[in-house]
Amino acid sequence: xxxxxxxxxxxxxxxxxxxxxxxxxxxxxxxxxxxxxxxxxxxxxxxxxxxxxxxxxxxxxxxxxxxxxxxxxxxxxxxxxxxxxxxxxxxxxxxxxxxxxxxxxxxxxxxxxxxxxxxxxxxxxxxxxxxxxxxxxxxxxxxxxxxxxxxxxxxxxxxxxxxxxxxxxxx
Length: 171
Known about the structure:
The chain is an alpha+beta fold.
């Protein structure tokens, strides 16, 4: 009984010494000075329109819109399952080399995805992915097609972006 009392007393003592509430030497950081701000302007914004050259992704109108013109299935494309897509991938398109991450968390139009280290607004906007037959489709937050890819091996996918630029996803 005496040992239990000593242990409980020690726990209380240790708890009190670590708690700043009981110590009188509290020091707070000095508050930051207020920062002046400029007023925000008002006005109407133009809607984003992918059909206008220079639209949502800075497309100059010279690329192929794969949302309208689907990518033909290449000879030798292999079937993949959703579980084959999980995890981290390297994503390459044009001068962009970055990472893509795929999960099975449901998201509008498929499953959640994201990219890291992409410099192009198109690839950095990837928010979802889905399988359509043998095709893997990368989508943005609005459900618009970012890229269409087909598996050439279990670890390599090739296709193109919505701007018609060749793209590949690989491990």
